[in-house]
Specification:
The complex is a heterodimer of chains A (124) and B (154). By secondary structure, chain A is an alpha+beta fold. Chain A has two helices and five strands; from the N terminus they run ββββααβ. The longest helix of chain A is centred in the C-terminal third of the chain and has 20 residues, at 90-109. Chain B is an alpha+beta fold and 154 residues long. Chain B has one domain (12-135). In chain B, the strands form two sheets. Chain B has a three-stranded antiparallel sheet. Chain B has a two-stranded antiparallel sheet with strand order 2-3. Classes of the chains: A alpha+beta (124), B alpha+beta (154).
Chain lengths: 124, 154
Amino acid sequence: MLEVAVVTERIDATRLSEKATENAPSNYNLNVSLSEKSRSAETLVLNFQLELTTPQQTAKITVAGSATLKGTKEEIQAGITAPDDSRPPHVLLTIYERVYGLVYTVATGIKIPTPLPNLLKKAT
Amino acid sequence: MVSETGVNMYSGVIRFYSLADLRKYLKELLERYQREFDRSSNVIGSLLRTEGQKGMEVIMSKGWAKVGSIFVNIAEPDKGSMEVVFQLVTEMKPRLAKTEEVLKTFESVEQLPIPEEATFLLYLRGGVPERLVVDTTEPKPTPYALAGKFNLGP
């Protein structure tokens, strides 16, 4: 079974405008970047960066770190492959799920809207 | 089940995508063997130092009895445990030496004319690196990368 270990190495959150409040509607865009750091037969280590910004540029949150996938070659391949063109791969869902608690806490702490908890599909 | 001492002497084939990864693996393997060897031989050493005048008697138990196909020791559990640790240390020594030798001479493998796209199959027998296949039939996978924008939902 595929195991995914996520380590957050950096989180930056900025309140760019006074218009950004906890009660403002949450409509972040999520920009994702995943890149391979190292690979062995049963392990794949990815660097990730998630950048959350509001369309009005009122708040910005950046989370970076690494995700280690452990499993067979087939399990790893399945973990990084998107089920279709519009949906995110399993590893990205896991990364977002694992960092969400921290993102939520930080957003609440600096009084900006909290991002929504589920990563849905590729933006068009 | 709790492992008291010893390392899993793995037999199998492991694929590596670079010689650097293979070297790193061998180094970690050797460190693991060395740690376990030191730990077990310290136990024996300390016993021999305290009761050294009695020689190997303190390690060799006479309480073994063959039950079915296995030797069982009910009479002298302390000595029996010491004897199996001693046996383990004796068996680990050549494995440790062989792994150390492979790592020491690994430079000669690195100097071979190996194609850029090759991957490597390492055959371990009882925990000891025995053979290496330079595999050009299964090339390295393309490095994974993903970039894109995603929507969030409740």
